[in-house]
């Protein structure tokens, strides 16, 4: 892989990450079509996703600050309740406990944590399958076909109106399972999580926030796992440089594109994206047999 190819892959990641069309699928398709040899490929993909994560964190910075604050408050409230329980038992008093889920943001934060658990488990189980699937064009073609079907179905379901306090933890698990299978190339993480949210009755605006904020622990977790498995012998100065270049390209492109893309995703029917996924799926599957 050349520096120009790393730069182009970063741009593709920055553009496709925020549409429900599978950024990983597009990366795998380009790498296979143009014979790009990337070692280690999964780590490079994660680095590109970290680049677009910068755009997500900037776009949702107020939500992230509030969620972090609520996490810290939750830890303190748990500590306070434990201390209160000990005090009440020792002094035989009736000191009141604090509510652990007093507001929507606290509930939202807990929902994101619950969704991240099945995502992590499924991601670990499918790790080898992802490496195999990334080595050919057929797998991302089938993944894009699945994404297209899910996006097409989503438009036929009535618009939900659930906000965090009305969402159960079982729904959070279901959304996390959908995101877990999105590690396979061609299955759009944004697409399947937004569809899962809508099918579970979340309102469209909340579904989109849920989907993009849920990507943060997923990408950070994937990065940590890849760093732990790194073999320094696999890297050269050129590979590091390409990773940095791809990261910068993905981050800058993502920052320019995310707001525009979020508006489009919020307003436009998913059928438009499903048509694109069907077209790319057919083209990719044909190429997989022709090449």
UniProtKB/TrEMBL annotation:
The keyword Membrane applies. It is found in: Cell membrane. Keywords: Antibiotic resistance, Cell membrane, Cell shape, Cell wall biogenesis/degradation, Hydrolase, Membrane, Peptidoglycan synthesis, Transmembrane, Transmembrane helix. It comes from the Bacteria. It holds the Pfam family BacA. Its EC number is 3.6.1.27. Belongs to the UppP family. Catalyzes the dephosphorylation of undecaprenyl diphosphate (UPP). Confers resistance to bacitracin. Bacitracin is thought to be involved in the inhibition of peptidoglycan synthesis by sequestering undecaprenyl diphosphate, thereby reducing the pool of lipid carrier available. This is Undecaprenyl-diphosphatase. It comes from Blautia stercoris.
